[in-house]
Amino acid sequence: MKKLLSIIFITLLTHSLVNAQAAALVKVNIFNAAAGVSVDIQTANSPEKPIHIKSRTWIIVQTTGDSLALIINKKPYSIHFEPGKPYYFVAQAGPTAHLTMTEKSEREFLLTAAASNARGPEEYTISN
Predict the structure, then answer these.
(1) How many independent structural domains does the chain possess?
(2) CATH of the domain at 89
(3) Which residues form the signal peptide (predicted)?
(4) Is the pTM higher than 0.85?
(5) Tens of each residue's pLDDT in the chain, 128 residues
């Protein structure tokens, strides 16, 4: 019995150590709900290759770091995220035709994407 418990304990310990060393992915879901307007997301890792989000398209940006460095109006900004947690953003055109990004709950994001007949998700991986 002690031998069996020892084997189970060692197996669980090994499994938890392997999982602890694996880098947790941050998944950032972005849906472009603006009709007829494309959104380009420029990251600091590859500023020459922006992520182009067409109208009514859903993308998932995955990163292994705890932040995502974006370039907005030619200035770098670092947005911090909690590893392993998914995030949901919707890009919409406001009354002044100015594009805004709003963080949403998972439920609200999925309902907005479904009601808009979203294409996707297209996945992009950014390594830090």
Answers:
(1) 1
(2) 2.60.40
(3) 1-20
(4) no
(5) 666 556 666 666 565 545 555 567 889 999 998 888 888 887 777 777 888 888 899 999 888 877 777 766 677 778 888 888 899 999 888 777 678 888 999 999 999 999 988 898 899 888 76
